[in-house]
Amino acid sequence: LIIDQAATITLVNSSLCEIFGHAAEDLIGSPLECLLPERYREGHVGIRNGFLAEPHKRAMGLGQDLTALHRDGTEFPVEIGLSPIVSESGMSILASVTDITGRKNAEHKLQQANQELEEFTSVASHDLRSPLRGIANLLEWIEEDLGDGAPQTVRGHIDKAAIRVRRMERLIDDLLDYARAGQQSDEVEVIDVDMLTNEIIGLVAPESGFTFEKDIRVAPFHGNRVPLETCIRNLVSNAIKHHDRDTGHIVISAVEETGYCVIRVTDDGPGIPPEVRNRVFRLFQTLNASKDDGTGLGLAISKRLVEGHGGCISIESSENGRGTTFRFQWPMFHRRDLGDGEKA
User: pTM for the whole thing?
Assistant: First the structure.
């Protein structure tokens, strides 16, 4: 819309009419404040007079939530950009108004989800870890009290209980990792992907029956090393853990594409059927229920880390039905607007 120096609306386009629910003839000639909730109108007169006295191109209400009034009486959030226009008839102000209801709703849902996740992981960490440690201690004391004379079946039951306690403790650790994965790290350092993959291979599979092939075509770059290392390590560990053979071959490649480091981890395992690929990144999802040494959080953590740092992750199809390729993009630049709200 355009207003004159008296803050009277002189021109509107169809998009603005659609946003506010008014016809153009109803708005032209009306004061600008008719588009504001009643409680803001008196205060706004002083603000717009101040702008008209010293007009300059700027965004309105930086750091504030601006509210507009629809014809039906409902209010909605907006962003407004102001630009002075000088012509022979004098000065006018062009106001560009954007309805940001959808974005605000998405931000609210994300904030609520993150808050609920924080509360849940806090409960998991504090209220579950302590009794689990108590159960582990009790099992150790029972084993000591029984001594060498305990029946083998009893010792077997104690061992199984201890394994389940350790599994629950690992699940709690993974849940905490998942919660933290949505936050962007502030630690920026030089990342040598070739050296990083060497370290991961040495850590994950030092004496396994798997062979590794690397094709790294990315120069060192500045970025968040620890979360990137976690993503690659999770994918390599996942390839080994869910392989259907004791030996296998894993290929790790990296190339640069339009400012992103694109990493692929390819295995020659049983593959992932197309109908279940959409759910492998969800919490507690594991395709091999017979292997009980995982929590089903590795891929979910990787996805959260990648997306939290401005990238994306996907599964690529294999030609012969066997094998899986996980592909993800990692930014080779640092974005300040990613991560939690305090850093945005």
Answer: 0.57
